Amino acid sequence: MSGSMQGGRAAGALLTATEVAARLGVKKDTVYAYVSRGLLSKHGSTDSAESLYDPSEVEALARRGRKAPAAQAVSPTFKSSITAIVGGEPYYRGLPACELAVQRSFEEVVFLLWHGDFDGAGKAAFPVAVAEPALGAVAAMMSRSALPLERFGCLVPFAAAEDALRHDTSSEQVTRKAARLMVRLLSAMDQLSPPADASLAALLWSRTSPRPATPGLLAALNAILVLVADHDLGAPSTAAVRLAAAGRADIYSIITVGLASFGGAVQGASTLSIERDLFGLNARPDVGQLVGDKLRDGREMQGFGHRAYPDGDPRARLILQLLRDSREAVAEVRLLDEIIDIQNQRGREPPNIGFSIAALAHCAGMQHGSGELIFNYARMAGWVGHAMEEYDAPKTMPRLKSIYVGPPPMSEGA
């Protein structure tokens, strides 16, 4: 061994404190503490004042603190019959989500996710939107600079406080509460345009765009709501919701957990970034300059590629085609296609659902931040569905376990 080399150093050569700290995953001060406790022996260097350490002692100390290998890490696994992604396509309860998006209303798909069929589904299952003076007053107190999703999310705890029976997690009660909440939250927000009809898609449009809804773009919004309603546990927000439901959090808390989890940089920030880029085209409709400016700043335009769909996100393909077919935002769609063409020439992956949501918001003239509200409003359906599955499961909280990578355990007197 003494004659072999490893990483430019003779195997068995003494290690510096910096190398020991890196090997053990600790700070240098901890290495010195190990020496004072007799766990490591230090050897003087012949050409410097720095102490050196025997690698065999370091390995022995590492073995003392080593836990199970990372490959054996324990993660919670949940059984679900809601969503499957097979062959590059999402399925809800075994039905192709992309077909549902153009054949069914969002309300019908919500009930499919919650109950596994369309019985009792449709607009009649949701209460009629009426004025919400109490929640509306809460919304009115918020800063005018607050984004739509921030306003929306702040209303949930107030709605919960009004429901003394919110801890009833029976299927019937959760269905009623969730359906009512989905209407109430939108009703409490400022109306920017008259709703085109009694659908949830039309109600959402009226709270996000000052323009009257057009048939083609409203159909695209309904399709987005369907396609974003769930995506299994791939999103951090849905995984967080499932854990909260395992602890029997009430349905209002479930929604709050989902919204809070989405608001982080991993999932939420990309939606706003795409919106900001597209809305910038209103003042400067130069697609090449938009992409070039971002590259100059060392950034890529978000909204391209999805790890679940290596061959392209089918949800985005459908929505973008609906926008093209509508012929209701020709100039905006032309710029969107220019962006896609440039990114394709650069070898970027195809656009994802986040890009298509921002694309609709751009075409519909929606206020800034509407894209993330659309996403979260749709995903509420999936969160509730996963919560209902967990409520019906045995009351056993999933046991999480970390892989310990800290200093080796030792007694204080060692």
Automatic annotation (TrEMBL):
<feature type="domain" description="Helix-turn-helix">
    <location>
        <begin position="14"/>
        <end position="65"/>
    </location>
</feature>
<dbReference type="InterPro" id="IPR002020">
    <property type="entry name" value="Citrate_synthase"/>
</dbReference>
<dbReference type="InterPro" id="IPR016143">
    <property type="entry name" value="Citrate_synth-like_sm_a-sub"/>
</dbReference>
<dbReference type="InterPro" id="IPR009061">
    <property type="entry name" value="DNA-bd_dom_put_sf"/>
</dbReference>
<dbReference type="InterPro" id="IPR036969">
    <property type="entry name" value="Citrate_synthase_sf"/>
</dbReference>
<dbReference type="GO" id="GO:0006099">
    <property type="term" value="P:tricarboxylic acid cycle"/>
</dbReference>
<dbReference type="InterPro" id="IPR016142">
    <property type="entry name" value="Citrate_synth-like_lrg_a-sub"/>
</dbReference>
<protein>
    <recommendedName>
        <fullName>citrate synthase (unknown stereospecificity)</fullName>
        <ecNumber>2.3.3.16</ecNumber>
    </recommendedName>
</protein>
<keyword id="KW-0808">Transferase</keyword>
<dbReference type="InterPro" id="IPR041657">
    <property type="entry name" value="HTH_17"/>
</dbReference>
<comment type="similarity">
    <text>Belongs to the citrate synthase family.</text>
</comment>
<dbReference type="GO" id="GO:0005829">
    <property type="term" value="C:cytosol"/>
</dbReference>
<comment type="pathway">
    <text>Carbohydrate metabolism; tricarboxylic acid cycle; isocitrate from oxaloacetate: step 1/2.</text>
</comment>
<dbReference type="GO" id="GO:0036440">
    <property type="term" value="F:citrate synthase activity"/>
</dbReference>
<dbReference type="Pfam" id="PF12728">
    <property type="entry name" value="HTH_17"/>
</dbReference>
<dbReference type="Pfam" id="PF00285">
    <property type="entry name" value="Citrate_synt"/>
</dbReference>
<dbReference type="GO" id="GO:0005975">
    <property type="term" value="P:carbohydrate metabolic process"/>
</dbReference>
